[in-house]
Amino acid sequence: MSPQPPLHPRDTEADDARTPRGLPPDQLSGLLRTGPFSEALRMAIKGRGLSLSRLQDRLSRHGAPVTAATISAWQSGKSRPERPHSLMALAALESILDLPATALSSLLAPPKPRGRWVNAAAARPSLAEAWSGLLHDTLDAVETRWTAHLTCVSRHHRVDIDAQGREHVLWSRQVLRAETDGPDRYIVSYQADQPGPAPVLRPSSPDRVGAVSQDPAHGTLVAELLFDRPLARGETVIVEYLLEHAVTRPAAHQAGLYLQVPVRECVIEVRFDPAAPPTSCYAFHIPHASPAEARERPLRLDASLRTHTVGLDLTPSRFGIRWSWDGS
To answer: φ and ψ at 75, to 5 degrees?
Structure first.
């Protein structure tokens, strides 16, 4: 993140002159230790004595503009900062509110996976924990005991966007390594944007499907892809499959992965229909451990209307591409 510009001296003096300092320090420090995020932010703003309009102005001068309405929603708990520019604004807020770096961002738990965030990583401590409880019922139908013993060495995730701007097909290819003897399956898990039928799973390698469970109330799909035989420790396997949407979906604005464990190499690719090329594309990376260090950079489309981003040695994080049409 680029260095933050200094506050204008006159603004600093004017604000400090009317800032109430009567907030009990232990009250705020306690909230900064335990949360919740919304209450800690609200009390920090109250203690600093700045109006939301003043905070909006300060953030603009820090190069991290967000609206007063957005700040209000954060402190009321109606929403929370998740996107890279919001997390950058949160880091600026910590400085403006005289808080230690990451004091607020550390209270943000990893966001719940939703929409196009396909949590198909095989290596994770707990699938149920990764999905914040949304898949508890569907996970009962599959065998998940090997998920913690498969390491994702590399993965390639490609999304096709149709002429209406909707996600049509998602293709995934992963190289997994067994960390112990015995893994014999991989668990594919997916949640759609809205309730309704989950996409159709079309496996390529391995092509044998075991148990499948769907929950239309949440638009979720969980399925087992069965290996030819149990893997020996250190052995690798390639997993490849398609998820094809058979029902109408809302327009998509981002594609990526919700990584629960480190990944050595990760490629995210998006292919756009010639009838709906985006006006802008950005790659982003939001580490779970330090969301204030979120990064994004502009991407260009090639002649075939494709774009991609590559991540190496990624820590648990959100990693992907977002785009817009006509600046929306």
So the answer is: -80, -15
Beta strands in 149-226 (DSSP E): 150-161, 167-178, 185-191, 200-205, 208-215, 220-226
Q: Exposed, middle or buried, 145 (CB in 10 Å: 0-12/13-18/19+)? A: exposed
CATH top class, domain 9-107: mainly alpha
Domain spanning 127-324 has what CATH number?
2.60.40
Q: Indicate the residue type of 312.
A: L
Strand 185-191 with 220-226, pairing? antiparallel
Contacts of 145 (CB under 8 A, 6+ apart): none
Distance, CA of 324 to CA of 327 (rounded, Å) = 6
Query: Any idea what the Cα angle at residue 61 is, between residues 57 and 66, rounded to 5°?
Result: 55
Q: Give residue limits of the domains in the chain.
A: 9-107, 127-324
Distance CA 168, CA 275 (A): 14
pLDDT digits (tens, 9 = 90+) for 224-268: 999 999 999 999 999 999 999 877 777 888 888 877 777 889 999
- Any alpha helices (H) in the chain, and if so which ranges? 9-17, 25-34, 37-48, 52-61, 68-76, 84-96, 127-130, 136-139
pTM attached to this predicted model: 0.62
Cis peptide preceding 206, ω within 30 of 0 = yes
**Token pair in block for residue 306:** 């494709």
122-161 per-position pLDDT tens digit: 334 445 444 444 455 666 778 878 887 888 899 999 999 9
- Position 174 scores a pLDDT of 94
CA distance 133 to 88: 29
CB distance 93 to 68 below 8 Å: no
